[in-house]
């Protein structure tokens, strides 16, 4: 996984971009969950998703790599508090201001939806 450069700067910038209550555009946020499974933590296992910056990531498949842009990419080092500050709080504020709002968590089994919604579960 590529280290997130300027992690806190990216969170602050994303909070500004995503927190605009007068904006009616759809925002797309990607959260890359931390590696947690024992197979993922083995040194010879390579990841297929690498965070490039606060709004981009690279998806690798074999020898091919595709760069993708989003409103914000929350890397594995992003805390629940940071994620809520950028995504949850503005969504709640929009609802309280009378705007329709939705957080839609999508992904295959094991991709991190539960981690995004409730954080780390006790062992």
In brief, what are we looking at here?
The chain has 123 residues and is an alpha+beta fold. The chain has 3 helices and 5 strands, in the order αβββββαα. A 3-stranded antiparallel sheet has the order 2-3-4, with no helix packed on it. Strands 1-5 form a two-stranded parallel sheet.
* Spatial arrangement of strands, main beta sheet: 2-3-4
Strand percentage: 15-25%
Elements, N to C (H/E): HEEEEEHH
Low-confidence segments, given as residue ranges, are 1-5
Mean pLDDT: 78
Detailed description of the structure:
The protein is α+β, with helices and mostly antiparallel strands and 123 residues long. Helices cover 28% and strands 19% of the residues. It has three helices and five strands. The chain has helices spanning 7-18, 80-96, 113-118, and strands at 29-31, 49-53, 56-61, 64-69, 72-74. The two termini are 24 Å apart.
Topology:
Blueprint: H1 7-18, E1 29-31, E2 49-53, E3 56-61, E4 64-69, E5 72-74, H2 80-96, H3 113-118
Parallel strand pairs: 1-5
Antiparallel strand pairs: 2-3, 3-4
Helix pairs in contact: 1-2
For this entry, give a set of tags.
alpha+beta, 3-stranded antiparallel sheet, two-stranded parallel sheet, 19% strand, disordered N terminus
């Amino acid at each position: 996984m590529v280290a997130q450069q300027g992690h806190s700067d990216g969170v602050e910038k994303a909070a500004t971009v995503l927190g605009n209550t007068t904006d009616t555009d759809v925002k797309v946020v990607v959260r890359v969950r931390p590696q947690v499974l024992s197979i993922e933590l083995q040194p010879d296992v390579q990841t297929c998703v690498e965070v490039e910056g606060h709004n981009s990531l690279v998806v690798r498949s074999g020898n091919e790599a595709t760069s993708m842009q989003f409103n914000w990419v929350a890397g594995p080092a992003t805390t629940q508090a940071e994620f809520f500050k950028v995504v949850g709080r503005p969504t709640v504020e929009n609802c309280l201001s009378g705007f329709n709002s939705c957080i839609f968590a999508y992904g295959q089994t094991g991709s991190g939806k539960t981690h995004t919604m409730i954080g780390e579960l006790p062992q």
